[in-house]
Amino acid sequence: MHQFYLDGQKAAKRHKSMEEAIYALLDTSFIEDQIFGAFWQDGFRGYPEPRWVTGWRLGKIPAIGYSYNYRDGYPHAGVSLAGIDGERTTWESVSRMFIEAEKRPKVRVAGWLIHQTGGDGEPLVVGAIQL
Description:
This protein is of the alpha+beta class. The chain is built from 4 helices and 7 strands, in the order H-H-H-E-E-E-E-E-H-E-E.
């Protein structure tokens, strides 16, 4: 996966925009893969390389592989976590209050932490698995 991150960095030097770079990659299968695509995009944007983390969320991991932001009406770039082990929780207490009120179970999760965050600033992971 590290190679996809490096490929994203190289593409940033060759193309004027991410749209132009992605258009050049339309014939490749990796661009549709959520994990490889996340590594490539973070490399393209100059963000730190995704890292493997463990943490927790309220509710099961969505089968589709990403969470949905119902408040703002769009899908997230990955699965949202309520917290990452060893790090401070940063998401808004109002959203947490509503989710906890639904009595969703606390689920332990591992995955690749990407640079993008959810609508409330919560961390997002790709390739999420339940522990």
